[in-house]
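step: validate -> pass
step: tokenize input -> pass
step: predict -> running
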Amino acid sequence: MSASVSRRAVLGAGLAAVPMLSSRSPQPVEAGAYISFSRTTGAFPLVGAPVVVDPDDHPGVVRVAGDLRADIERVTGLRPGGGLAREVVLVGTIGRSALIDGLVTAGKLDVSGIRGRWETSLQTVVEHPMPGVERAFVVAGSDPRGTIFGAYDVSYGIGISPWHWWDDVPPTRRSEVWVLPGRYSQGTPAVKYRGFFINDENPALGTWAPAYFGPGKAPGYPGGFTADFYARVFEVLLRLKGNYLWPAVWGRAFAEDDPENHRRASEYGVVMGTSHEAPMMRGIEEWNRHAVAAVRDSSGAIVTPGHDPYGGTGEWSYRLNSRAIQAYWRAGVQRMVDQGFEGVVTLGMRGNGDTGLPDGDGIELMQEIIAAQRQIIEEVTGRPAAETPQVWTLYKEVQRYWDRGLRAPDDVTVVLTDDNWGNIRKHPDAAGEGERAGGYGLYYHFDYVGAGRNYKWVDTANLRNVWEQLHAAHAYGNRGLWVANVGDLKGNELPTEFFLNYAWNPEGWDLERLGEWELRYARQNFGAGHAQEVASVLAEYGQLQARRKPELLNRRITLVDGQVVYDDQQTPFAFGHRELERVTEEWRELGRRAERIGRRLPGGGVRDAWFELVGYAVAATANLYELRSAEFTNLLYAAQGRAATNSLADAAEAALARDFALAERFNSQVAGGKWAGFQTQPHIDYGDVERYGPNAGWQQPERDNVALADVLFPAVRRVGVREGAEMGVAVEGTEVGVWWPGGASGVGAVLPVFSPYQTRPQQFVEVFNQGRTAFDYRIDTSSAPWLVVERSRGRVERQVRVEVAVDWARVPVGRAEGALTVTGAGASVAVTCVAEKPSARELRRLRGFVEAGGYVAIDAEHYDRVVGGWRRIDGIGRTGAGMTPWPVTLPRQTPGGAGSPRLEYEVSLLAAASGGEVTVWAYLSPRNPALPTGGLRYGVSLDDGPIETVDINVGADDGLLNAVWARNTSDNVNATSTKHSVTKAGVHRLKFWMVDPTVVLQRLVIDTGGLPALYLGPLESRRV
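step: predict -> pass
step: emit ->
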């Protein structure tokens, strides 16, 4: 864009470290930090000052000056003029604005700290800048985007949210706005190209946008997105200091859907790219709309001719149709040259429809493709290929080319990717590969369609997880181009903003400042009054969502004979330990907190913004957990014949109705109905093969590519309830339709073992009615007088839950066994109860985490001793913090030495028999082997025993996205185990050894024989 930055320098300049500012450089500050709402000495009054721009500056600069005027009016109620006055705001680009250059020439404006930099701005107050002007607030840019970012930074400082249009965020009204004296800059971005990919946009954005902005302009394709739509996208991208866009691709063609689209991008100053499957500045839909592929028989002979606009066979195959495909590519580059828009050209080739190349994955073929593409670039541009920015994106199967030795030319930016679930697959290897002139990039996901299951509905990003991955990318030298798949954009505002903020200044947002970032986000969008409460909700929301995508709340994944098995009609959470109840209650409480905040927010549009940015996602997800809890409890009760079964069916159906009502509020009531049709993304009926076919396990509910409205899946059940009374008894932890006296197939009722050191929820029995007539029940504990029953007698209408505890003063030392007997409605059920009480001698020797119930559960951050560099990342785990070796660039370690990095935990094992064996489970974040050393390993030892080393990714394939990988990412944890001999009960020392960096340990669980099957694992054990 800038006349002082060549196209060759555009890519390369962002790949080296940003140089330090000179001594004459402006003071580096965060966005808008130079704005004050009260007068101070020397401050410049922004209210009433006209905003002036050279009309010959870049069109994007002229346009942003208009946005700044509008933003000042939004805040103050007064619209600035555009002519010179005694006090004035001057906006312009060095080398393109006569106003700015005149000040520099006259010695009034020092731009030495920003001149020649990439996208860098200066905000400063200049005294007596020109005749007739006493003072000017100058916003100067090193290049046009630097100026644009500088102007939008002022808008941010005065209180305009980047999402003001997309989420109807009203600013706080101000009568005074002042610019503090001094010279300020937000610095030079650390990552050269920073942007996002609008993708997977049906049904939400794909329904709303054509209705709001008008249909696409390509004949026969009314679902296309127009230049007016993209203008709103470009604006928010620039307000977030992003500069790069991959446009929507689901049945859409950016260049065809509106001939104005590329021109509008140039007008705004946005760099255009195309996704990983769309090479040479052409969206894949441009081929699909005009080509019909030939059909061939098994010998390769054409049996049904095809066609395309280039005289070929219509096949998206380089082996079979290379001449036509090359012509198609040539036209894409020619269009970029003819229209003069700024672009980054995607190289390589994938299969049509986001798949592997149909021609096979031979290295020689890909070399031929890239060579042909670069030759086309040179022929069309008339310059060496290296002078045109290019990327090669190693998405999914494409990374195999790199792993097998294929390298793109040195000037090409190699874009590394995550695994679609926020776990990066590969980091740059500067030591092994050397520096690349083109450097490296990152393609990251906040939205996904594919193996495992789609996640498209609401934001599910955990900011701590995102930070950890982006920090690692930057630390390993990935600084050329970062792009995030943001789905519909709306709904993923928070992670999108953080992604772009971090790409601009990674060192400015260290781990300890994430809470401050959330506070700033809350304040900018909802005002200062409730910002702390909002920030707290945002942090908890991110952690709770990251436990499991909401689309996966009806899938349980298990291992059967070493094979991954999906059950799409089960909750992943256990009934045991009240796990399903506990996670539902956590969401219920978060929903209450969010609702209270929403009620206290002022009117005037703030509540609409709240609902769009926070309220809907929290309320709807909390309601979904209520729905799933009612649904799966209903199915359990139906199998037990409980009279309460049908009321839970009613509750699940009511929750479905609330889900629809929340969406309808979003679509018809918020912002006067502005978002009609947007909240249409299904998220409940996944897995319903009978309703919508064999792809139901991963694909959204749809038929003929049109989304279907949700129904309850699995369907709830209703049972016939007899008139008379009939007692049933269930014990805590029952997962299937087992009940007593008649539904247990001869198996006795047994409560989980009691321990004085247990932290698990209290054991209970449920006495339920299978009929309509109430009955009296009684619980007798005379055979075990140490049992304490919450309510030993009462009346059962439908059901009663009775907690059972232990009076430990009355329990004999060792293992005590007794029973409680439940009597009612003419039936009697005995429930066995076991209590394990250590001796006084054993109690005196206990230290650390104490075994109870046959296991010890430890949260990683609660170590007794740490050796070497480790960092605690609060909130990154499914239930708490995580521990990771630090710095992330540490080399691989050989565990076992005195100074070897490790975490140590003291534990007391009570039931480990002499010569026995225990299993230690490590719950890790589901990271991929992203380093050139291969594998991703850790070690575990117990006491002075051998160190057992584990490669956590054995069997998982992050390129093929196989079932083992899908299990790890769906569960958002990689649980692996080691076995260790135990020669005696008592105090032991558990050691977790670093082998590779990038491992994130969340929990350690020792199974001594009683570990229950829980999704999150048991609550942390008691520590003494």
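step: describe -> Confidence is low (pLDDT under 50) at residues 1-23.
step: cleanup -> pass
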